Amino acid sequence: MIDLHAHTHYSDGTHSxxxxxxxxxxxALTALAITDHDTFAGxxxxxxxxxxxxxxxxxxxxxxxxxxxxxxxxxxxxxxPSQHFRDHLQLIADQRKDRNRRLIQKLQSLGIRIELExxxxxxxYMTARPHFAQVLVRKGYVESYDDAFARYLSEEGSAFVxxxxxxxxxGIRSIREAGGVASLAHPIRLKMDxxxxxxxxxxxxxxxxQALEVFHSDHSPAAAARYLQxxxxxxxxxxxxxxxHGSIKPKVKLGSQRVxxxxxxxLRAAQAKPPLPVETQ
Length: 281
Prior knowledge:
Layout: E1 2-6, H1 17-26, E2 31-34, H2 41-46, E3 54-65, E4 68-76, H3 83-109, H4 116-123, H5 129-138, H6 145-153, H7 168-177, E5 181-184, H8 194-206, E6 211-216, H9 221-233, E7 237-241, H10 262-271
Helix pairs in contact: 4-5, 5-6
């Protein structure tokens, strides 16, 4: 059993890389992909730790579709990501910091007494909306993490601010140019009807996407069956994972999707193909 979607405290998880590896071994996993948001820091640290796991280099890249974020998983199971791609992540980090400053200002304009330094103390390595949610809960402005997103932080929330991010096709291409396999994460969160969803996945395939996350903690058996059909129609590699975040999402259990190791074999075969050439301006 493997899990191809898990986070450390280098993005919005609560486990350190060492804790995540130990937990994966406790869960009897044989392979684990660390897919932190917009950074390889968690994987880089984990790769220095002795483990019996087959450790996979991954990332969950933030892209944009209108006002909404679309997450593209990038996998590098056979060869590491290019240095050019790693350097590009610094721009994404700068865009996140700018969003955080604007988000604080929006919250303050709504009468919420909160400072960016408080949130950064929780985020430590990378400050993201889940860390804002934790501070809002702690200070009594909301009752729960989910309440914080519903009232303030989600795309429908009163404090939402659009974060600069590359368009979906550009994000897919950047992963492909870096030598990785691009997979659309948790497609159920697109909140599209079946026709829109089908067309969108088709456009992603046209942009170079090679995989689709079929198995995910948010996917019901019926949704997983639908995504399996779409993956087969578009000849996409199937990926899957729990999207484990630790105590911040206690209902999501590592390894809960029971993903077959055959999927990792397919993922490695897809990465063995030559990467897309880097576009020049």
